[in-house]
Write a structure and sequence with these properties.
The chain contains 6 helices and 4 strands, in the order H-E-E-H-H-H-H-E-E-H. With 136 residues, the chain is mainly alpha-helical.
Length: 136
């Protein structure tokens, strides 16, 4: 069915997401700036504010940082995903906490893909809301 250009916007559009939404680099900065810096080699350095976050949110921040490294072309898109073991080792949290974050706490925000979990671009605003609440 071809949509007529003169038709009004379908009210169902409010609940549909576009999997191909481009990455919003400003949103990545807004999420990450209080919590991390990333050097030119891709090493993620955590701030004091990061240390105050709970482990579930630390896992999210790590996944967003990997997305930023993809945006900056430090790593390839196919390296964006991370499993609980990688998250644990690199985010400074236990593997149990990482598993809890990806499989229970934030399973509605993350997508499971080959190699682990990613945050789809269309869910970055939800991540910002979560970290903004934690910061306040």
């Amino acid at each position: 069915m071809v949509k007529n250009m003169n038709e009004e916007k379908d009210t169902l559009d409010e609940i549909f997401v576009d999997k191909n939404v481009p990455m919003d680099k400003k949103l990545l900065v807004d999420i990450l700036k209080p919590f991390v810096t990333i050097d030119n080699e891709g090493v993620i350095n955590f701030t004091e504010d990061y240390e105050r976050l709970n482990d579930n949110v630390k896992a999210l921040i790590y996944l967003v940082a990997k997305k930023a490294k993809v945006a900056k072309e430090i790593i390839e898109k196919n390296q964006e995903a991370a499993g609980p073991k990688e998250i644990s080792e690199n985010a400074g949290i236990s593997e149990g906490s990482a598993k809890m974050a990806v499989s229970q706490r934030f399973k509605n925000i993350l997508n499971r893909v080959s190699g682990g979990y990613i945050i789809p671009n269309y869910n970055l605003k939800k991540v910002l809301e979560i970290v903004s609440v934690r910061e306040a």
